[in-house]
């Protein structure tokens, strides 16, 4: 049975950063469910927020982040993220990440919503691709790191001693041959990213099915703040799309460079919603578009990029320019059709400032984790930063806790019959994604949440029976996780009877600090407002 010092689940920025740092202390195995580069990280466009500008300071970045987080940021997590971020960004640069430089030879700093200063370090508009490329190159061929592609973690292996649960590793499916093996590990690090695929429209690629959060929840870890789902206001509107296809993102940096939202008649509407107009926080912009579309009955809004000019646009945003061209969007009119889509999950496995979950020897960072750094709303480009900082911290803390891997039980192939009813999976996948989009989206209500809960329970029952009856396949594992994720989002949203940050409900449209200025914690089906 395979065993290792550090088992890393996921190969985005969090998993790879952790792996490279942990490899200084022991053997690392990375399991990743597709090719090693396939991750949300790979698609990040805008950049990494970090204080480098001469007119900027750590206190400015901290203040912006806390302001954006709508009263729920953990100030200590914000301070750690903001202060330790710049050095880690410099490490990336030394590793070969080709960040865009300005004419004076310094880092070119972009501006995005919610940030009061220019502080977005970027590689043109394909920052994530560049970071992923460099990190993957460094891990490949590293003498202490083994990378297992097409290996999907199914469940954590735990040991219970009274109240205390320890993580001993994970069961992992080799998706090319259907074999499942137990991987025993001294430390297990969850870095499976977010779960945008739980919504019908999302910027996230197909890997983003919330596996780490669902696995940790099943194992007994505390999950926090799942109601705070960020909808990116501007993804390219396309009249037709395929199931699982991710919505093409039009980065916030486009508005940072002068792009302005308008309706089809050219009427600019953002100044009616927020003093910062087009550079208001994302939730405000997403709700404004949602409200404009509901009022007008139109299917999309437009981003007017005419003030940027086509040449500059093409140079600054080559990836977006090409993406629009591939989708036959005529940019000569200076208008990009846009709609909101699910983008980022602020909630996740609750960790402390060192990436520790409340299961012993189980650590997490990146979009899977909830450190409290984003509070109720994440500022643009703070997520790559958070993943970097807390993955590095987790590697440091977990190396002190490292112990020899334990003996574990092999996987028990209970349902070993191949299913002939695959339609159950595809049908229910679509049903969950549609249900979440329609009932648990940008604007929520008590009635819609109650209806979503009822419908999801029926689907969950069907999937549970199916899961234990047939041979485990990757799409079934992911669907099971998406159902758990949907349930966690609905339960957390239902328990927060106020509107704050990314959670907006028309039945409780005011912020209520007296009752709800606290995290929503959920553990084994029990909601606890800490
Ligand atoms: C289009 C887009 C643009 C973005 N732009 C920005 C930006 O400009 N700035 C910013 O800060 N943030 C941005 N974000 C958010 C940011 O990219 C993510 O939050 C961040 O990359 C998450 O990193 P991660 O390492 O936690 O997860 P990911 O990068 O998503 O990596 C998760 C990894 O886990 C693997 N995995 C998942 N489940 C399993 C399993 N069961 N078993 C094995 N492996 C598994 C995946 O295959 C993948 O390798 C953007 C996101 C998107 C989608």
In short, what is this structure?
By secondary structure, the protein is α/β, with parallel strands linked by helices.
What can you tell me about this protein's structure?
The longest helix has 24 residues. With 530 residues, the protein is α/β, with parallel strands linked by helices. It folds into three domains: 281 residues, FAD/NAD(P)-binding domain; 107 residues, Succinate dehydrogenase/fumarate reductase flavoprotein, catalytic domain (Flavocytochrome C3, Chain A, domain 1); 89 residues, Fumarate reductase/succinate dehydrogenase flavoprotein-like, C-terminal domain (Methane Monooxygenase Hydroxylase, Chain G, domain 1, Up-down Bundle). It has 14 helices and 19 strands. It is globular, with a radius of gyration of 22 Å. The strands form four sheets. Strands 1, 2, 6, 7, 8, 9 and 16 form a seven-stranded mixed beta sheet that branches. The protein has a five-stranded mixed beta sheet with strand order 17-15-10-18-19, with helices on one face. A four-stranded antiparallel beta sheet has the order 11-14-13-12, with helices on one face. A hairpin with a 5-residue loop joins strand 8 and strand 9. Helix 3 packs across helix 10 and helix 11 runs parallel beside helix 13. Bound molecules: flavin-adenine dinucleotide. The site of flavin-adenine dinucleotide has 44 residues, from helix 1, helix 4, strand 7 and helix 10.
């Amino acid at each position: 049975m395979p065993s290792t010092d550090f088992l890393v689940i996921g190969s985005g920025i969090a998993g790879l950063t952790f792996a490279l740092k942990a490899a200084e202390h022991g053997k690392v195995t990375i399991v990743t469910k597709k090719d090693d580069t396939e991750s949300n990280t790979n698609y990040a466009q805008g950049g990494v927020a970090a204080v480098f500008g001469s007119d900027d300071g750590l206190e400015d970045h901290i203040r912006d982040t806390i302001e954006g987080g709508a009263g729920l940021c953990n100030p200590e997590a914000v301070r750690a993220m903001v202060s330790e971020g710049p050095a880690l960004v410099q490490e990336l640069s030394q590793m070969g990440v080709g960040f865009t430089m300005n004419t004076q030879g310094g880092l070119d700093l972009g501006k995005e919503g919610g940030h009061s200063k220019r502080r977005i370090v970027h590689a043109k508009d394909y920052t994530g691709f560049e970071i992923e490329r460099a990190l993957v190159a460094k891990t490949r061929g590293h003498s202490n790191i083994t990378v297992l592609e097409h290996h999907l973690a199914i469940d954590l292996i735990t040991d219970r001693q009274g109240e205390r649960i320890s993580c001993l590793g994970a069961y992992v499916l080799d998706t090319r041959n259907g074999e499942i093996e137990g991987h025993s590990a001294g430390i297990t690090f969850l870095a499976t990213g977010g779960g945008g695929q739980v919504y019908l429209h999302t910027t996230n690629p197909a890997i983003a099915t919330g596996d780490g959060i669902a696995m940790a929840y099943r194992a007994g870890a505390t999950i926090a703040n799942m109601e705070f789902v960020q909808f990116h206001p501007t993804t390219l509107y396309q009249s037709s799309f395929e199931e699982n296809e991710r919505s093409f993102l039009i980065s916030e940096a486009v508005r940072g460079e002068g792009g302005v939202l308008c309706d089809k008649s050219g009427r600019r509407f953002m100044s009616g919603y927020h003093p910062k107009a087009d550079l208001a926080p994302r939730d405000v912009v997403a709700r404004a578009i949602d409200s404009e579309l509901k009022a007008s009955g139109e299917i999309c809004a437009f981003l007017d990029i005419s003030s940027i000019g086509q040449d500059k646009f093409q140079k600054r945003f080559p990836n977006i320019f090409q993406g629009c061209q591939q989708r036959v969007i005529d940019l000569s009119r200076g208008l990009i059709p846009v709609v909101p889509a699910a983008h980022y999950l602020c909630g996740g496995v609750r960790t402390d400032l060192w990436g520790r979950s409340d299961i012993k020897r189980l650590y997490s960072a990146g979009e899977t984790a909830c450190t409290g750094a984003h509070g109720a709303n994440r500022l643009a480009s703070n997520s790559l930063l958070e993943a970097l900082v807390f993955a590095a911290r987790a590697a440091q803390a977990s190396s002190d806790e490292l112990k020899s891997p334990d003996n574990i039980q092999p996987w028990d192939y209970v349902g070993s019959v191949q299913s002939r009813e695959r339609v159950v999976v595809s049908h229910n996948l679509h049903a969950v994604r549609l249900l979440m989009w329609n009932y648990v989206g940008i604007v929520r209500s008590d009635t819609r949440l109650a209806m979503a809960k009822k419908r999801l329970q029926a689907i969950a029952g069907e999937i549970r029976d199916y899961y234990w009856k047939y041979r485990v396949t990757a799409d079934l594992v992911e669907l099971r996780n998406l159902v758990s994720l949907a349930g966690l989002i609905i339960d957390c949203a239902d328990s927060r009877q106020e509107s704050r940050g990314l959670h907006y409900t028309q039945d409780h449209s005011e912020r209520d600090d007296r009752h709800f200025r606290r995290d929503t914690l959920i553990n084994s089906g029990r909601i606890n407002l800490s």
